[in-house]
Structures are given as structure tokens and as C-alpha cells.
Amino acid sequence: MSKSFEKREGWIWMNGQFIPWANATSHIISQGLHYASAVFEGERAYNGKIFKSEEHTNRFFNSAKIIGIDIPFTKDEINEAKKLLIDKMLYKDCYVRPLAWRGGEQMGISTTKSNINVAIAVWDDWASYFKIEDRKAGLRLITSPWKRPAPDTAPYEAKASGPYIICTMSKEFAEKNGYHDALMLDYRGYVAEGTGANIFFIKNKDIHTPIPDCFLNGITRQAVIKMTSEQGFKITEKHILPEEIGNYDEAFLTGTAAEITPIRSIDKVNFTTGDNSTTFKFMGDFSEMVKTSSHN
Questions:
Q1: In three state form, how does the secondary structure of 142-177 look?
Q2: Which of the ends of the chain has fewer CB neighbours closer than 10 A, N or C?
Q3: What is the reported pTM?
Q4: Domain identity same for 73 and 174
């Protein structure tokens, strides 16, 4: 059983200072808690170096800008704080979570006078959303009853806390029904993503992935598109209908925690025509890529 996140040893960087893990608290009266007024990042360090650290920090600041949060630190300060925290925690391979939220100096929907808090935490026992044995066998997905909203109803380009309630509800729905994760459709009925990862489909040397026009264009997603394109695969971003899923030989998820994870089935569609050999190759290639980047 994993350790409680509330009762750990170590340090958290919070508002410019390193403080003991147990002291990194926020008051119960907080706009960030009551109204999901927060943005965050999910990053991963390999051999002590964060993969795509600057890209994550850029997105962190862009997410904050989209929802009206002015982060009171520079990008360089955040990048440096991440590095120092990993060193202080004596980690090499770990998960990194920057977070910015509105505090409790002002309460209510109005944000004109709200204060901003920024924190960074790292931990080393959240290697993946999925168990190793499940990743090897491939995940079973079920379509969620909840959909990704239209771009004019939610800040889809921001990694903001509020919209993630749809993801947590979808994940709970999947697990209660005996599945590993949920496939989320968008407001038009097209395939969108998993609950916390982007999705890809393979047919021979063609790879299709949904257009990120109402969900987050993941940093790992972008890295995988570049990697597979350089290997000679044809990448097509397109709108994919659920009934088209059965046309593909393989499918996989991508994300910071998921890295590249094969999908065994989606609802009644089983990817049994192949052995996920292409996806497993990508998994190995991605592993080598992040290891190489950690030594540069």
C-alpha cells in the first residue's frame, strides 16, 4: 500500500521557500479548494533530470494566464526550484507536481483581490497510473458517460483543476465496472482521450490520433508524434468516430505518468489481430529517448 500523501517525510517548495512536507498546508477557506481555481503540471524526472522541463513550465504559466492567475515567480525561478527540490529530496527518478492556486484572502467567485500560492512537490512512488502487469497485458477501456466539453465552455488549453472532475468521475465509472480506464468522447461524439492521457491508433505504418481541439495537447503526445514520425510512420490527426475504432490493429495511451501504455480493448472492440508489437517497440524507444535526454 502506498504511503499517505499527508504523512510523508521530506520537503516541499512553497511560495519561495523549502518547508517540511507536513507543514505545506493551505487553509480550508481557499478559492482554490472551493472553486477549483488552480492550475498544475505533471512532470517526470529521469536520472535527476526532468523530461521537457521548460515545456512543462511554459504550459504551467500559460495555463495560469488562461484562467487569470498571475504567478508571482519567473519561469527561471520555477525551473530552478524544481531542480533544487529533486536534489534536496535525494531523488533520481520521480514525479514532479507544480501547483498554483488562489488562496483565502478573498472568498467568493470574484478574484480581483485574491492572493496566489505556488508550490512544488516531488515523489518517487507514482511511476505510472497503471500496474506493470496491466501495461504488459494491455488496458481494458470502457466509454465514459461523461464527455469533453466544447472549447467555449471550458479552458481546454489550460491544465486547470476544474475540468478534471469529469476525468475523476470517468475513472471511477471505469474502475467500478471492472476496467482500467475510460475512453472519453468529445461534445460532438468523436473520440477524445483517456481520463488522464492522450490516445493513438495504429494500422500498419499509419498512426491516427484525435485532433486536440477540445482537450489538452499533451507534451508526451507531442514527443511521441515527433519520435514516430522520424521512424517513418505517417501521423494523421483526425476526428475519429467510436465505430471506427475497430478498424485499427493497435491502440495506446500517452502521458507523463502513462508514458506509452498499450490498450487491449475498448468496450467490445478487442485489438487481437496483432500482438501490440509496434506499441511495445514504441515503449522501448520512448524509454531510450528519455534516458538519453537525462544525460544531455
A1: EECCCCECCCCCCCCCCCECCCHHHHHHHHHHHHHC
A2: N
A3: 0.94
A4: no
